[in-house]
Amino acid sequence: MRLIQLGAIDYTILIVYFAFVIGIGWALRRFVRSSEDFFLSGRSIPSWIAGLAFLSANLGAQEVIGMAASGAKYGMMTSHFYWVGAIPAMVFVGIFMMPFYYGSRARSVPEYLRLRFDEKTRGLNAITFAVMTVFSSGISMYALAKLLELVLGWNFHTSVILSAIIVLAYIFLGGLTSAIYNEVLQFFLIVLGFLPLVLLGLKDVGGWSGLKAKLVPVATSAGYAPDAWSHSWRNLGSASANPMGVEWFGMVMGLGFVLSFGYWCTDFLVIQRAMAAESMTAARRTPIFAAIPKMLFPGLVILPGMIAIALHTSRGGLLPVGRDGTPNYNLAVPVLLAHYLPSGLLGLGLTALMASFMSGMAGNVTAFNTVWTYDIYQSYIRPGQSDRHYLRMGHTATVFGIAFSVAAAYATTRFNNIMDMLQLVFAFVNAPLFATFLLGMFWRRATGHGAFFGLLIGTAAAAIHHGLTLPRGAVAGLKGAFLGATFHVYPSEMAQNFWTAIVAWTACLLATIVISLATARDKSDEELGGLVYSLTPRIADDALVWYKRPAALGVVALGLTLVLNIIFW
Amino acid sequence: MNLDLRIPIGLMFTVDGILLVGFGLVSDEAIYARSLGTNVNLWWGLVLLAFGLGMLVPAIRPSRRPPTQGP
Fold first, then answer.
1. I need a surface site. Which of A239, A404, A488, A513 has the fewest CB within 10 A?
2. Which domain holds residue A186?
3. CB A204 within 8 A of CB A311
4. What ipTM was predicted for this assembly?
5. Is B50 within a domain?
6. How many angstroms separate the CA atoms of A98 and A290, rounded?
7. Does residue A542 lie within any of the structural domains?
8. A515 and A499 within one domain
9. How many domains does the structure of chain B reveal?
10. Is there a domain that residue A548 lies in?
11. Which H helix or E strand runs over A489?
């Protein structure tokens, strides 16, 4: 099946984009003189640029494709990933955590863990993070190349190699600055490339009210209340009342608190963008500036999925249907591109898809080369070398980081199960992290042993919980119950994932507290100044106009998010 | 940083806008059946052009630096 035929104008737009991303790298190459320039942009990025890059680095192709797929599969409830998940976490990291990340002058998230706790906690975090970033960029590369093969008939190998070379070129030339500048360009391209699709789709279904009416048969035919696809909160009372199979507590605690705070507050991929900001205030504003456009993104990435499923049901078979009768949700965006956009805008939409893929991949690569060079190479392999040496290592790490990603993409084509398993392991590792950072930043008594073993226990708890439970209708194996017994059956995979995270986070929190109290303090109050809340002088923003103060902006962002939740409740 | 980011962003969208407007003017009306009868290339091309120039013009006007830093 070849869904989309491209014309000369479409290729021209794609090539113009390629020329500009590489051109930006080329123009920035002469500003890279030290390792700090390469890995942290010399800490010179204004907050609006850092904020848009913060947003864009997370907005990979998997997010664009996956959120639309969720929009089709679950409807408006997908907005919880933004309005309960991302926004509160982004405001929190900006106001409360950035003072320690930026103020400690740590060059990476693992390095903060070394300053706050000890070497082994940093090592654990650095190594798992480095492995995870390389694999996730490989998996998304695989997903994109497969998609392009399916809808455009492009050769799989050409897509992998071409995208790898372009990302390599611009990071190699300009380091993090180049990645960040390109992420801003990519941000605008993603918005302006997908917006016509949403506008045409909405016009076609008769606006929001027309869409709601067309989503009624989608919901009722699946056995849910007629408004199940068009409300975010109304059907969260019990897990059986909504297609996600999650009740409000699992949603707010599992997704909203544990998973989202865990991602936005501890993942170096996004934190690195804020660490590159030009000042403490700019660093704190970075995630909050990002939160404001982020709250509108459901309109850009979830709405197309809802439009696709509405048209699929009301007009009969827009999406390709699999052998088991379920539509292929992952094709929602490409199908709509082909359905609405004529040659010309089609090229722009496709370029936007490529841009989202590249921004996600560049985010992974720049985070990987920094953690590799500072936290692994400089710490354990070759300490005490000149800065030039580490700058050269950064260039080398960029090349082999991308080479590993390509290798991971090819491994995925052969061993799909191994990749699923790795992603599961990553989920176990990530789930407890936020407990460690929370205790580290807000409780001076937390010790290195407590943090390290707390993390291991949290990860083990995640694995055990997953190993003893199953989503309804699944067979034992990767989906759960691999420990031989099933103690609980969740209504859906998502519910199981949320509860795995809650269990892991709670286990890590309790274990870290108990072990910390049982072990001697390893850092004095003086050593913890700037690293722990109670031992760090408050930052006075009084000199700034209110709309430049991080806390005031955070309140505005939360207020607007609350309004959105109420409108679409 | 000495590279004003508004310049490459503005330039790229100006180029894309010109391309789309140009294509919208010469292309066969029949291809717009799928976009509900609207010549979206022309209209969205104008939007991109306006955005591109909106980024570009303020970036190059006050400074004496010529806009050659973009690619």
1. A488
2. 8-414+553-567
3. yes
4. 0.86
5. yes
6. 14
7. no
8. yes
9. 1
10. no
11. strand A488-490
pTM: 0.89
Question: What Å distances lie between residue A379 and A108, A110, A169, A433, CA to CA?
Answer: 13, 11, 27, 22
Q: Map A386-445 to HEC letters.
A: CHHHHHHHHHHHHHHHHHHHHHHHHHHHHCHHHHHHHHHHHHHHHCCHHHHHHHHHHCCC
Q: Do A345 and B35 touch (CB under 8 A)?
A: yes
Question: Do B27 and A344 count as a contact with CB atoms less than 8 A apart?
Answer: yes
> Closest-CA residue in chain A for B9?
A185
Distance CA A227, CA A223 (A): 11
Q: How far apart are CA A28 and CA B2, in angstroms?
A: 9
B69 touches chain A (CB under 8 A): yes
Residue pLDDT, tens place only, A248-298: 888 888 888 888 888 888 888 889 888 888 888 888 888 998 998 998 899
Cβ distance B3 to A181 less than 8 Å, yes or no, reads yes
Query: Which amino acid belongs to residue A111?
Result: E
CA A275 to CA A13: how far, in whole Å? 33
**Cα-based distances in Å from A381 to A42, A99, A377, A398:** 24, 30, 5, 17
Nearest to B41 among A19, A184, A345 (CB): A345
Residues of B in contact with A175 (CB under 8 A): none
The residue type found at A379 is S
How many C-beta atoms lie closer than 10 Å to residue A187's C-beta? 25
Instruction: Determine, for residues B19 and A204 on separate chains, whether the beta-carbon distance falls below 8 Å.
Output: no
Q: How far is B69 from chain A (nearest CA, A)?
A: 7
Token couple for A301: 């990435």
CB contact under 8 A, A342 and B32: yes
> Tokens standing for A512?
């870290």
